[in-house]
From TrEMBL:
PROSITE patterns: DPCK
Gene Ontology terms: biological process: coenzyme A biosynthetic process
Keywords carried by this UniProt record: ATP-binding, Nucleotide-binding
Pfam families according to UniProt: CoaE
PANTHER family linked: BIFUNCTIONAL COENZYME A SYNTHASE-RELATED, DEPHOSPHO-COA KINASE-RELATED
Gene Ontology terms, MF aspect: ATP binding; dephospho-CoA kinase activity
Gene3D superfamilies, alphabetized: HUPs (3.40.50.620), P-loop containing nucleotide triphosphate hydrolases (3.40.50.300)
Name of the molecule in the record: COASY synthase
Length: 243
């Protein structure tokens, strides 16, 4: 349940930083850095432990440790409570204490590593894939990036365009699923088509095998259009981006 778990540094790196800090504070200190695979770790099984350092917000966890130790036939630990340092620069939506969660939130919008140079890809426009499920906010982000000057490609709109009469997927879809999917005006009735493929993986694959390559081709054409307009950044907004 951590905030932005994708941005948490690897354990080895965090342990190395902790080791460096401990050696800097007191080189003679004897310590053992142990990874925790559960909320308790060795605190409820190590008979040599005597004290547990807690904060005001983790005191209840310390009390839970002592209850567990008693169940395991071990003596209680002395709970030494420390005050957490305040973060004078925290924003309104961040924790008041110095917090790694706040630090990870501040990483949003920053470049974590230089863009990988791929000789098979042109340098411009730089294409960013923007994906997420319904309600994830990707459409809002796409609009913001568009206001900043990015060329935005809406894959959902392309998905509608491939179905229109004369569109690249129109005739193959009608041939595969029959004239009963057509409205009186000759357009494809998406609801009727959806009912045909819903819950049927084989039919759904038949449809996506027709439609997705055409959407991909249209997206590439739009990227070339962005290049012709001199756009430096192109954003592809797609719910099923990889597909």
């Amino acid at each position: 349940d951590k905030v932005l778990p994708e941005l948490i540094e690897p354990y080895e790196l965090r342990a190395a930083k902790l080791r460096e800090f401990l050696e800097d504070v007191k080189p003679s200190l004897c310590y053992d850095i142990v990874p925790l695979a559960d909320p308790f770790g060795p605190s409820v099984t190590d008979p040599d432990l005597q004290c547990l350092v807690v904060s005001e917000e983790t005191r209840r966890g310390g009390e839970a440790v002592n209850r567990k130790r008693l169940e395991n036939g071990l003596p209680e630990l002395a709970l030494h409570e420390i005050q957490l340092m305040k973060d004078p620069d925290h924003s309104q939506n961040e924790e008041e204490k110095i917090s790694s969660s706040s630090l990870r939130q501040r990483l949003l919008g920053t470049l974590l590593q230089p863009p990988r140079q791929d000789p098979a890809l042109p340098l411009r426009p730089y294409v960013i894939g923007l994906t997420g499920g319904t309600g994830s906010g990707k459409t809002s982000i796409a609009k913001l990036l568009g206001h900043l000057g990015a060329f935005v490609i809406d894959a959902d709109k392309l998905g509608h365009a491939v179905y229109v009469p004369g569109g690249p997927a129109y005739e193959p879809v009608v041939a595969a699923f029959g004239a009963e999917i057509l409205n009186k005006d000759g357009t494809i009735n998406r609801k009727v088509l959806g009912a045909k493929v819903f819950g049927n993986q084989e039919r759904l694959k038949s449809l996506t095998d027709i439609v997705w390559p055409e959407i991909a081709q249209m997206a590439k054409e739009r990227v070339r259009e962005a290049d012709a307009q001199g756009k430096a950044v192109c954003v592809l907004d797609a719910a099923v981006l990889l597909e």
